[in-house]
Amino acid sequence: MKKILVCEDETAIRDFVVINLRRAGYDVVEADCGEAALKKYEEHNGDFDVAILDIMMPGISGLDVCKELRNKNGTIGIIMLSARTQEMDKVTGLMLGADDYVTKPFSPSELTARVDSLYRRVALARAHSENNFKEELTCGIFKLNLRNRSFMKGNKVIELTQVEFQIMEYFFSNPGVALDRTDILNHVWGNAYVGEEKIVDVNIRRLRMKVEDEPSNPKYIVTVWGMGYKWEA
Length: 233
Fold this sequence. Notes:
Elements: E1 2-7, H1 11-23, E2 26-31, H2 34-43, E3 50-54, H3 62-72, E4 77-82, H4 87-95, E5 100-103, H5 108-130, E6 136-139, E7 142-145, E8 150-153, E9 156-157, H6 162-173, E10 179-180, H7 181-189, H8 198-211, E11 221-224, E12 228-231
Parallel strand pairs: 1-2, 1-3, 3-4, 4-5
Antiparallel strand pairs: 6-7, 7-8, 8-9, 10-12, 11-12
Helix pairs in contact: 2-3, 6-7
Protein name: Stage 0 sporulation protein A homolog
Domain Response regulatory: 3-119
Organism: Candidatus Limousia pullorum
């Protein structure tokens, strides 16, 4: 069963989310605050495919829960729920390891589509890991192992989220090629993605902080002005 953790302190919104996800075939575990979400995560031994976290909650915020879950689990998909006025919080959530965000108010179809898209990525990564999938891509001093979903810079292991790994896989498959932001968005998030294109830029910024010697002066993930990015290694 596709298992999802929903953390939202507003009862009406949480009930709305839970009902629609159960209708879509998900096994939903709900929590009304950040503390409860982390407790539920431990009670279920981290056996979740996706987590949906409201940003603003009393006590432990959704951002703190996101950071904690990402530290515990590099493969879980994380979606943040935010109000329209929380623009910086959206970016912060992505920088802390979230894969996507949905702005309130949202429709059941939009949320379900985002969850479905993220779940497919998580399931595909798991299938590659569990099956005899041994392909490894090498580019300069970097190695990307598609079976165990590991990424190395020389002898150093770099932890990547699912989204970051897929972006790197796309870069490795197209070394030196200028990739349009829209191409990256469609390849990683899917053609049906209804979010904003800037999510690509936030993830690129996060990747640069992990792979570059000088993130402010990148030499591996290079900006192609007016278009997107290319991988040089």
